[in-house]
Amino acid sequence: MRANRHFVDDYDKSKDGIRFNNDYGYLNGKVQPTASAYNEYHKPQLSLNHFWTINDRSSLSTSVYYSKSTGGGLSSYGKSFGDRKIMQVDNTNGRPFAETALTPDGLIDYDKVMENNKTAADGSKAIFVMGTNAHEWYGLVSSYKNDFTEMLHFTAGLDMRYYKGYHYQKISDLLGGAYYKDYTTSKSGDVFPVLAYRDPLAELREGDKVGYDNTSHIVWTGGFTQLELTRPSYNAFVSLSVTNHMYKRKDPGTYGAYGNQVTAPVSMETTGWTCFVPTTVKAGFNYKFGGIHNVFINGGYVTKAPTFDGVFAGKTNVKTNDLKMEKIGTVEIGYGLHTRHFGVSLNGYYTKWMDKTYSYRPYNNTLYYSVPGTDAVHKGIELEATYRPFATLLLGGNFAIGDWKWDNDIHYDEISDEGVPTGNTLNAYIKDLHVGNAPQTSAALYAT
């Protein structure tokens, strides 16, 4: 249940050493994790498989499956960020905020949190909620194979899915208060919602939903086909796939203003379907010579639908403007050497990724950002070598060096909790900067 980053210095100074953990406290005599330090999940899956050998050249394999999941994670929740801080530490460094209530041992002081909630004039100020991500998922995957000749092989198939995701928060503990009202007040006394899901003047109890409650519907229907030619000295393939992605979002929340504000709340229960039809074309050729050598080239062009969060970036039913499908063009060439004892694989690649869409919400921020139209170029060289001195030992190593860079500067919109652009446009001058979150130069040695 340790969920936050910590400085090495804090581990060194702690009596617990590397077991140092301050992401908990004691609530009614029992260990109580802080926000983000407790998760639970259950996901059973059922599948039924059918295999049919039609004749000595063709076969059909089909699988239908169903999964139903439930679970989520604990979060602190409050009338303002400052109220929530009373039982939080800074997740970026593991150190308490100025508002954090601590015991002499440096743990979260839940007794003080409960006392504050009991004496507050208008219900609990800080509570625990369980954020739930549950789903129902139905699918069918079917693949047909036919060897037209000993050299010509054909494959085709279907991939069909329906996904229904449930996303909501429920109050799990009022922490000493009699009820909770989901609002915050400005200095002038006006009432504003924290997250505009429901009337913030309603008195909420444990088990009531708070903050958000929405359902996502995703329908995926796709087909693919591949033709492969194999000869003693070479083999080649070409493949094609087409998919229909459909997104719909249901949200019973009312979005707008409450309390002393003059704007009437607005409800948008369910959206219509948003559709994309991405396609993929790939081809490759591999030539073998000398009994131990081969050279190859592969290439493809892929269009990719935005993610569900990219379509509804503001976490409401308001869609992102100017949505585009991502486009990926790639080519790879390589050489291989394989003998009884040695193996070497060397390849180079070049990938152009266009119109990539991001959406994000900074930690503890009430604004979202939709970032469409981002381009990147990924190129590099990869080398892997193996040596087997005898049957039971394999030695190997690999080395990769890449040059992954953003290919354009971008301009993107700031979006409010209600899913409406605030009018602020941000600029990110990222052209020629390296793409992060993945190693571009890496090396490894291994033995098996």
**Structural category:** mainly beta
How many DSSP helices? 4
Number of strand elements: 23
| Overall pLDDT confidence | 88
Q: Give the strand content.
A: over 45%
End-to-end C-alpha gap: 34 Å
Radius of gyration: 28 Å
Share of helix, binned = under 10%
User: Can you tell me the overall shape?
Assistant: globular
Largest sheet: 17 strands, antiparallel
What ranges have pLDDT less than 50 throughout 5 or more consecutive residues? Answer: 256-266
- Write the element-wise H/E pattern from the N-terminal end onward: HEEEEEHHEEEEEEEEEEEHEEEEEEE
What order do the helices and strands come in, and which of them pair?
Elements: H1 8-13, E1 24-27, E2 30-33, E3 39-42, E4 45-53, E5 58-78, H2 81-84, H3 110-119, E6 126-147, E7 152-173, E8 183-185, E9 191-193, E10 209-230, E11 234-250, E12 254-255, E13 266-267, E14 274-276, E15 279-289, E16 293-304, H4 308-311, E17 326-338, E18 342-360, E19 368-390, E20 393-406, E21 410-415, E22 421-428, E23 441-447
Antiparallel strand pairs: 1-2, 3-5, 4-5, 5-6, 6-7, 7-10, 8-9, 10-11, 11-14, 11-15, 12-13, 15-16, 16-17, 17-18, 18-19, 19-20, 19-21, 20-23, 21-22
Q: What do you see in this structure?
A:
The chain is mainly β. Helix content is 5%, strand content 56%. It contains 4 helices and 23 strands. Strand 21 and strand 22 form a beta hairpin.
